[in-house]
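User: Before I run my own analysis I want an independent prediction to cross-check against. Here's the chain; please return only the structure tokens and, at the end, one sentence I can use as a sanity check.
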Amino acid sequence: MAKTKAIESKGRSSVLDLVYISIGAALIAICSWISIPTAVPFTLQTFAVFFVLNLLGGERGTIATLIYVLLGAVGVPVFAGFSGGIGVLLGNTGGYIFGFILMGIIYIFMTKILGNKNVVKIAALVIGLAVCYAFGTAWFMYVYMKNTGDVGLLTVLAWCVFPFIIPDIIKLVLAFVISKRIEPVITSGQEYR
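Assistant: Structure tokens:
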């Protein structure tokens, strides 16, 4: 009897994990389509990655992000501007998209090693964002110089990083606050496992 309940609980747990991961990947896709018109337009893509990692945890959040990237790689138009395909990932800004996966890996390691305290989660997201910027910038420079010509680091930072720092910090704070409000609903659903 106890063994049967354990198997049923594990089955429900796996199904619930799949549902959360699927919703997380869909949320990232939807948020990548939402463009905020400012002097330098930006999407809510990073907001969704922050939100999914913080709400679902490192493993499920990273898997959701990986599924999002894989969907885009096979041509599903989940990237900004309703684009998709391997060409987007191999293009100038593809490194920033791959950087989302690195963000998740950093989140997993930091929360595993240092615990699930709020300060650790925020630090993991900030460090993950910095790594995403660094990886994406290096990728951009490599692809740009290979296809177009020389470009300086400061120029690439001015194009791809500096205009997004403040919006990304705002998105990080909003994602953290909103996920904290929703977290009791998610954790109460896990109690039924």
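Sanity check: The longest strand covers residues 35-36.
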